[in-house]
Amino acid sequence: MEALRARPFGKLLSAIVGGFLLLSLKGSLRGVYLKGEVPKGPLVLAMNHHSFFDGHLVWFLARRHGHPVSLLVAEENLKAFPVLGLLGALEARRVREALRRLREGTWVALFPEGEMRYPGPLGPLRPGAAWLAKGAGVPLLPVASRVVLRGFEHPEAFLLLGKPLPPEGDLEGALGGVLQELDETLRKTHPREVPEGFREVLRGRRSLEERVLPLVRLFR
Fold this sequence. Notes:
With about 220 residues, this protein is of the alpha/beta class. It has one domain: 3-Layer(aba) Sandwich (Glycerol-3-phosphate (1)-acyltransferase), CATH 3.40.1130. It contains eight helices and eight strands. It has helices at about 1-5, 10-30, 55-65, 75-80, 95-105, 130-135, 170-190, 210-220; strands at about 30-35, 45, 70-75, 90, 105-110, 140-150, 155-160, 200-205. It has an eight-stranded mixed beta sheet, sandwiched between helices. A hairpin with a 7-residue loop joins β6 and β7 (about 155-160). α5 (about 95-105) packs across α6. The model has no long low-confidence stretch (mean pLDDT about 90).
């Protein structure tokens, strides 16, 4: 799969697979909202994991910043969906390859909780993210994610980017902190309003009432 990615046909397939991921986001979510800035250069992106769309959102965030990314995934997931390798997905056990990609400038992303969890406080973290960041000499970027159904027909995705950390930094404290901040922000925001400081970076599927509103206004 890695050799195929470098060939013209592989690049075409990568574009097609990426297009399907984008269609999945746009067709399933009302929108994706982002707060925070991404530092330049390679990094280890560490995100909490509670939603089917988390991998899509990692890919979209990297795509939006024009940066290649390798998401570490369970071996069984990559075997079930080998086409994800065309977008850089890598078996979690292949840490040496992940280090090589980091040193070449690629982002490496992972879910340090090690499993999908019910939405709530951050679970215990595995040491892989810090180990990779230290081995490659790159920063850690904590990213909090929530995909929630609020005041509209379709769920919305919110990404809150934390401050970059040195490899020896307190990732569990930082990621837990931004996740708590995101949850508190959503709790105190009206379900039909965009939380303060967030911007819509992908417009998705609107509710039926939103789609027919122009027609209603026309007949008033």
